[in-house]
Each structure stands twice: as structure tokens, then as C-alpha cells.
Specification:
binds glutamic acid; 445 residues; alpha/beta
């Protein structure tokens, strides 16, 4: 495999799909050497097959708003790869999405899900529908309209969606409700469901908790403690909330959160009722963090700015792709950051990641660090299949084991001669190996 020629082929076939090409390039560059040690991969044209989704579903979603006007959105589901298990991955509702967004997310999901050790293939989907400023009934009507088409592509052993940006327990509830009615079954073909109808304890916290379990494994190797460290977090949604909750439990101090309107700096640290206030901010549906300073006047609001200018020990992007760029990375390094945990999917640009790796900063890529969310979705699927519910302690324990296992897989392929661990390389190769071997075992399909 020659990375350059595969990329040139993809660029010609899919011009303008920026995020997708970025995600593929990042993986190819890191796996090329290992790939070329295995002639069977080339023989089966594994990489040419793996970079294209199995299937793309795009559909129109017409619905009626509160004023009686007809609205039209686009729905997407990218069933990327089901070599190791049923398609699995979240749904994103955001005005900015495109085919490229979902292809990049589905591609990443395939590797991430492989790392979880659970039998889950990769998928992603969603819509350009923006929940911002919409009423509860508009959100319900949209979710129902969306499922009128999507339901036929889903199933408990076929394709199991979940939440992502703009899709939380409320939206999952509406989508699953309509799915259940149309499919005439209740087998849990969605994860992130409410606890009353098959949801799993710890699922809401899982992405943020998992990121800290991964960070803990990285720190353990270095003999560093999380306790007492200062942390900059971006975002204020479900993932950021889980991360802030775990940071407070472990005695670290989170000093920032952010939204599309700017970031909050709270020198006293975000803990206790400040964490609960994050939920209020999110439930307001306004997608802004500025009201935090009215509630907690010790904090300051920095409109239009990102939190990466603050001097902290650990940086954790928890919002959206490419939210931390080259300049931000340079600033963090200049301020002496010791560790960066990418919790959002592709939260760092390629140039930013390269800077962290060049400076030998402890750096965890999203597909390893944020895999706790989908891993706990996998645990929700197991509970649904067994018709039981595990305790929070049991789910949390299994999540801890899975994150440790992901860390160990990264070490297997990411350790360099000088002892530095390139977790990007480690995660990409480990995820790739599993999917590639499964594809070869199943023949040319
Ligand atoms: N959207 C989450 C992710 O990026 C969770 C997916 C899931 O639980 O299926 O991994």
C-alpha cells in the first residue's frame, strides 16, 4: 500500500469531502509500515475496501413545525463496516453536518469499536436538523419523521444507533419509540435509552468516565497522579459533563468549559452544583455557556475564544472535530501542558496532533480515549439481549476493564524505542488489525 496513491484515488472519487479525507489520511499514514509487513492485506486489497463504507443511506425528512410550516431536512446513515459485529454508532443532529462529516465519523467509529474488544461494527448517522431553539414538540415530530424512513435499515443485530452531538436521551426516546412501533418489536435497537425502557446505568457518564480511566492508565505508566492537576475542558454537553464529574471525583480541578459563544474560566474549579448547572445550560436549548457567570460570579466569560490559551496540566477537547488547531497546540505546549486527551471525535487537527507528538506530550487520540461511550453502549446491548439490568457498579467495573484493555492494545503497537508511546499509531494499528483479519476471514464480500 502506498498512502499517497490511495489518498489520490479517494480525493479524485470524493472531492471536497474534507473531514473524511483527513480521517483516512491520519490512519493510513500511521498504519502503512505495519500494513506492508503483511502481503495478505495487499492481496485482499483490504485498505481499498476498508476506506469505503459498506452502504450509505441518504433520505429526505419532511416535517411540520409549530407554526404549521413544512420543513425539509436531510437524514443520513453510513453503515461503514460490519466485519466484526452489527453496525454501531451514534446519530448527530447539527446544522453543519454533511456526507463528509458522517463518513469521517463512521470511519473512525469502525476502528474505535474494534478497540473496545466488543463485537461491534462501525456506523454513524444523523441530520442537518438543528435542535437549537426548537420546541419539545418540534423535536419529537422531527425524530418521528426521521425514523419513518430509517427504521427499515436498523435492527438489534443489524444496526444499532445511539446519541452524539445534539442527540441525547430525549431524542433517543422519540426515535426508539417510533422504531418500536414500526418494527413491532422491543429488542433495544438503540442505546442511550432511558432507564425505564432498557437503558444502561452509567451510559450517560460513560464517555467522560472512560476518558479518565484511559488517562489514568497513561499516568500510571509515568507515575503521575490525576489528583491536584488543573484541566481545561471544551464543550458543555454530555461528554464534557461526564468528564467534569469524574475529574471532581478524582480530585482534579477543571477550570474551563465552553460553547459556540465562548469559554468560561472558573479559577475555583467546576464541581458540585456547578456541574449540575451544566445540565441546566444544556436543557435551555440555547447552545450557550455565558449564563454560567451570572450564576457563579467568581468565573469569567471569554466571548468568541477557546479555552486552550489557559495554562493547565491537562487539555481535554470534548466538543467537536477540529476544535483544537496548530496555534492552540503551540500555545498549550508553550504553557507546559503535560497531557492532551482528545475526547471529541477528531477534536485535534492533524497539524495539532503532530505538534503534540513531536514534543512527546502524552497524547490520547479520540478513538481510544472516547471509546468508553460506545463500549458502554455495547454493555447496554448485552443487558438488553439478556433481558436484565446490571448495577451501576457492575457497568462501571466493566468500563474500567475495557479502557485498560484499549490502553494495552495501544501500547502493543505504539511503543517507540525511547519508551515514548505514540497512542495515535498504537490505536490505529490495533483497530485496523482486528477489522482487517475479520474481513480476510470472511472472504471478498
Ligand atoms: N456517539 C458516540 C461515539 O462517538 C457513541 C456511539 C454509540 O454509543 O453507539 O462513539
Amino acid at each position: 500500500m502506498k498512502t499517497e496513491s490511495v489518498l489520490a484515488m479517494l480525493e479524485a472519487k470524493h472531492p471536497g469531502e474534507k473531514e473524511y479525507l483527513q480521517a483516512v489520511k491520519e490512519v493510513l499514514v500511521t498504519i502503512e509500515d505495519e500494513y506492508n509487513k503483511h502481503p495478505e492485506f495487499e492481496k485482499h486489497r483490504i485498505i481499498e475496501r476498508m476506506v469505503e463504507p459498506d452502504k450509505v443511506v441518504i433520505f429526505r425528512v419532511p416535517w411540520v413545525d409549530d407554526k404549521g410550516n413544512v420543513q425539509v431536512n436531510l437524514g443520513y446513515r453510513i453503515q461503514f463496516n460490519n466485519a466484526i459485529g452489527p453496525y454501531k454508532g451514534g446519530m448527530r443532529f447539527h446544522s453543519s453536518v454533511s456526507l463528509s462529516t458522517f463518513k469521517f465519523l463512521g470511519f473512525e467509529q469502525t476502528f474505535k469499536n474494534a478497540l473496545t474488544t466488543l463485537p461491534m461494527g462501525g456506523a454513524k448517522g444523523g441530520s442537518d436538523f438543528s435542535p437549537k431553539g426548537k420546541s419539545q414538540t418540534e423535536i419529537m415530530r422531527f425524530c418521528h419523521a426521521f425514523m419513518l424512513e430509517l427504521w427499515r435499515h436498523l435492527g438489534p443485530d443489524k444496526d444499532v444507533p445511539a446519541g452524539d452531538l445534539g442527540v441525547g436521551a430525549r431524542e433517543v426516546g422519540y426515535m426508539y419509540g417510533m422504531y418500536k412501533k414500526l418494527a413491532q418489536e422491543h429488542t433495544g435497537t438503540f442505546t442511550g435509552k432511558g432507564l425505564e425502557f432498557g437503558g444502561s446505568l452509567i451510559r450517560p457518564e460513560a464517555t467522560g468516565f472512560g476518558a479518565f480511566y484511559f488517562l489514568n492508565e497513561m499516568f500510571k505508566r509515568e507515575g503521575i497522579e490525576i489528583k491536584g492537576k488543573t484541566i481545561a475542558i471544551s464543550g458543555f454537553g454530555n461528554v464534557a459533563w461526564g468528564a467534569v464529574t469524574k475529574a471532581a471525583q478524582l480530585g482534579a480541578k477543571v477550570v474551563t468549559i465552553s460553547g459556540p459563544d465562548g469559554y468560561i474560566y472558573d479559577p475555583d474549579g467546576i464541581s458540585g452544583d456547578k456541574i449540575d448547572f451544566m445540565l441546566e445550560l444544556r436543557n435551555s436549548g440555547q447552545d450557550i455557556v455565558a449564563p454560567y457567570v451570572e450564576e457563579f460570579p467568581g468565573a469569567t466569560f471569554h466571548p468568541g475564544k477557546k479555552p486552550w490559551i489557559q495554562k493547565v496540566d491537562i487539555a481535554m477537547p470534548c466538543a467537536i472535530q477540529n476544535e483544537l488547531n496548530e496555534k492552540d497546540a503551540e500555545q498549550l505546549v508553550a504553557n507546559g501542558v503535560m497531557c492532551v486527551v482528545e475526547v471529541s471525535n477528531m477534536g485535534c487537527t492533524t497539524a495539532a496532533t503532530d505538534i503534540f507528538l513531536e514534543h512527546k506530550i502524552l497524547y490520547a487520540p479520540g478513538k481510544a480515549a472516547n471509546a468508553g461511550g460506545v463500549a458502554t453502549s455495547g454493555l447496554e446491548m448485552s443487558q438488553n439481549a439478556m433481558h436484565i439490568q446490571w448495577t451501576a457498579e457492575e457497568v462501571d467495573r466493566q468500563l474500567g476493564i475495557i479502557m485498560k484493555n484499549i490502553h494495552d492494545q495501544c501500547l502493543q503497537y505504539g511503543k517507540e524505542k525511547d519508551g515514548y508511546v505514540n497512542y495515535v499509531k498504537g490505536a490505529n494499528i490495533a483497530g485496523f488489525m482486528k477489522v482487517a483479519r475479520a474481513m480476510i476471514a470472511q472472504g471478498t464480500i
